[in-house]
TrEMBL record:
Keywords: Signal. It comes from Streptomyces actuosus. It holds the Pfam family FG-GAP_3. Residues 1-30 form the signal peptide. This is VCBS repeat-containing protein. Gene3D superfamilies: Tachylectin-2-like.
Length: 412
């Protein structure tokens, strides 16, 4: 968009202007200098260098007035990402760019720009400059059944919870809309997972692991039609940082309550943690004697083959292969079957939220990471692919359904 050029970090020095309390002002046509941009503002200059008249704002500006297409140098001293649009009204059709907030020690400024800024908007995460706050998610309505899960708000559609880089939590109910259900702080969690109703109140719940303490928390779904979450309950007092691939699995034990699985980092063993009648977890059971450190992603898929037992998908790190481990009636896993011959390591997230195609068989969605390529070209992150379940444990070929999923650090 703007042929952005980064100069060296400018050290904060000298007297900083306090501002006149106005949202947008124009400085006198004296040589302002980058140090004259007040803290908390985005500033622009009409010259190719940071000299001459200075314009500033700390609010969204849909139309730049006399400064439309006139800013040729700028700096961002706010605490938000500045979205810079070539068209008025935050329209992305003519192009857009973004500028991260400056650091406290110093800040980069940019010179010799094309001068095409027509509107500016401030957001918490740069993906919001081009796409909605939440990823676009569509799912078909289905009739509840024994293999049904993934519906947080009870609307008969599979839902998605996503976390952005700002640490906010978003809920998308399957009709392309979304809403905020966690205003911040979710970056403190290094695992998010859900599959079924742990508390027994009829609403699906979310489980999260706290990175700093290794504690495991349960956030009960409220079932209010908004996909919201209630006050959290501690279900694991510590030590969970010693486990990888913490995954809500579904009812493997056959007692009517969903269970949790996780592999132990130190041994590569796979353990089942049975759900209890009180919404907690019971004594763990060994269901995989070793080798599970070779897997870098697990997905509790539900009953993919129609035998009445929930199944597991696991991705092999060294090969990018996808394996099916069928659940058994004894509460364990059967012999694995290869269902994906390779390439699955280019998926940053595997998303198992039940049946989203409406045919009563669980499906899989996957979001590409920054290594994903098409025909030898690097395509990058944020592409959503849907893989329809065939009913025999396998998947149909993937189809690309959306490209707005970049900028999200976890989905479940």
């Amino acid at each position: 968009m703007m042929n952005r050029v980064t100069r060296a970090m400018a050290t904060l020095a000298g007297l900083m202007l306090a501002g006149a309390g106005l949202t947008v002002t124009t400085a006198a046509p004296a040589a302002a200098g980058v140090e004259d941009c007040p803290e908390g503002y985005f500033c622009g200059w009409s010259n190719n260098t940071v000299t001459g008249p200075m314009w500033k704002t700390n609010k969204d500006v849909a139309y730049m007035g006399g400064w439309d297409n006139s800013i040729h140098a700028y700096v961002n001293r706010t605490n938000a990402v500045a979205c810079l649009y070539d068209a008025a009204g935050y329209d992305t059709s003519k192009g857009s760019d973004w500028l991260e907030p400056a650091s406290a020690e110093g800040y980069p400024y940019y010179e010799n720009m094309n001068g095409t800024i027509s509107s500016i908007r401030f957001v918490q995460d740069r993906h919001e400059c081009d796409v909605p706050d939440y990823p676009s998610w569509m799912s078909s309505t289905h009739s509840p059944g024994p293999r049904d899960f993934g519906d947080m708000d009870g609307n008969g559609q599979a839902d998605v919870i996503s976390r952005d880089r700002a640490g906010r939590l978003w809920f998308t109910p399957g009709d392309s809309t979304g809403r905020l259900i966690g205003t911040g702080g979710w970056n403190a969690m290094n695992a998010l997972t859900r599959h079924g109703d742990f508390t027994g109140d009829g609403h699906e719940d979310l489980i999260a692991r706290e990175a700093s303490t290794g504690r495991l928390w349960l956030y009960p779904g409220t079932g209010t039609g908004t996909g919201g979450l209630g006050s959290r309950t501690l279900i694991g007092t510590g030590g969970w940082n010693g486990m990888r691939n913490v995954t809500a699995y579904g009812d493997l034990t056959g007692d009517g309550r969903p269970d949790l699985i996780a592999s132990e980092k130190s041994t590569g063993r796979l353990y089942l943690y049975p759900g209890t009648a009180t919404g907690g977890l019971g004594t763990r059971k060994l269901i995989g004697t070793g080798g599970w450190n070779a897997m870098n992603a697990l997905a509790g898929m539900g009953d993919t083959d129609g035998d009445g037992h929930p199944d597991l998908y696991a991705r092999e790190a060294s090969t990018g292969r996808l394996w099916l481990y069928p659940g058994t009636r004894t509460g364990g896993l059967g012999s694995r079957t290869l269902i994906g011959t390779g390439g699955w390591n280019t998926m940053g997230h595997l998303l198992a939220v039940g049946d989203f195609t409406g045919d009563t068989t669980p499906d899989l969605a996957a979001v590409t990471d920054d290594t994903y390529m098409i025909d030898g070209w690097l395509e990058g992150p944020g592409l959503l692919f849907a893989y329809t379940g065939r009913g025999d444990g396998r998947l149909e070929s993937g189809r690309r359904v959306d490209d707005s999923w970049w900028g999200f650090t976890d989905v479940c």
